[in-house]
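Our platform keeps sequence and structure together, in a single record for each protein. Nothing more is needed to write down the fold, since each code stands for a local backbone conformation. An entry from our holdings is shown next, in its original layout:
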Amino acid sequence: MKNGVNLDIIDKDQVASMEPAVFAIKALFSPTTGIVDTHSLMKRFETNILNNEGQIVYGSEVTGIRKLDHGYEVSLTDSDKKNFSFTSRIIINSAGLTSDKVSEMAGLSDEKLTINFCKGEYFRINPPKTGLLTDLFIPYRILKWKV
């Protein structure tokens, strides 16, 4: 629990009671974490922004952010290497692996915003089994569907 995430090792009986459709010898259960579909989340943000008369700038590098009384001035270099800036009341930082640097430019330098890289593996459950799992857990050895 070094990073504040609680992981419990659960046995096959606990797995069966939590997830009746799964057989696993042991599993790691993470009761306080989850997985976000970032592509769907960004698509929803994009739709909401455009529906509210906002603008999105793609293919550009943020080179500076200056806090104003009622928002921000954002400086960019576009894909043609042209520099420009605009003002915005709010900023949604979706800069991926460089989002910590964009946060720093906006004056947010909290240690909690630092990116800590780690490797993980995810799997997708395809129909007709999509609705069978209710919690995030990682089977230790074997994952078999009971149904």
